[in-house]
Amino acid sequence: MNELYTYVHEKFRHLVTAPNDIRIAFLDEPRWIGYDIAKDIIENLVSLMNKPKRPRMLNLLVIGDSNNGKTTLIRRFYDLYGESHVDSHSNGIRPIILAEAPPSANEKELYVSLLERFYVPYRPTDSLVKLRYQTIHLFREYKVKMLIIDEFHSLLVGTPRLQRQVMNAIKMLCNELQIPIVGVGTRDAIRVLHTDPQHASRFDVAELPTWKLDHKFQQLLFQFQSVLPLQNCSNLQDPALAAKIHTISGGNLGNVHRLLVACTVEAITSGTEQITLAIIEKHSWVQPTQGLRKIIG
After folding, report:
1. Which pTM does this prediction carry?
2. Which of 45, 155, 212, 234 sits CB 3.0–4.6 Å from 274 for a disulfide?
3. Looking at the structure, do residues 161 and 232 belong to the same domain, yes or no?
4. Cα angle value 107/141/58 (rounded, 5°)
């Protein structure tokens, strides 16, 4: 029977006839949907990570609107290439350190955030110099090849002096360890780089733009359809459905995902077993700004 549901990826085809609660629970699991720009950025990251060490490593800033897939992309890259392991000499290896920027520009909090990723004892009350030394030591000991800092735009919070200090700390880590550093954040993160022209010259910028209503967006919807365990094909790439989904989501990837999950749950619980135009319109509340205007109005 599974061969009937060819519009669903073969890995998930068995779920089409599963009980409703199992199918709905499946929708809440994190799942990677590959698309061209994301694949290009991941290839760029792999290339950066494998470059030989040198005094001035090239860095990368990945930017995009909030909820547009930046963190999902970075975590996908981390899952593929950042797994901790033990080498032939029984040494622990951490190829990638993925940390979150502190909530404001603060050099000491930056080191604390990085130290947390190693799961080793440290004292947050230690001096800045000692925390800096311990951070550098652990990066070397675990042979880290790349540092990724998510929520990079948070470094804008604080005085210009504190912003310069934390960016100088990042530059020092790059120089001292000779590894690439990747920042991930909203477009505001670009302003962080301009605290000093030297910072801007060290970073390339890769953007995850919002989606336009075109054949690539239709292809994205076709890929989404392959992970939705419905018993009837929804043909999400149909121009009318694609246009409505794009209007509601604003081309924001996170909004697209949220909308399609809500519509799939409706299709399962109602017995429709496919996403229709009426179901999509019923869930137009998914667009946050529209919902806010309705509440205010």
Report:
1. 0.89
2. 234
3. no
4. 60
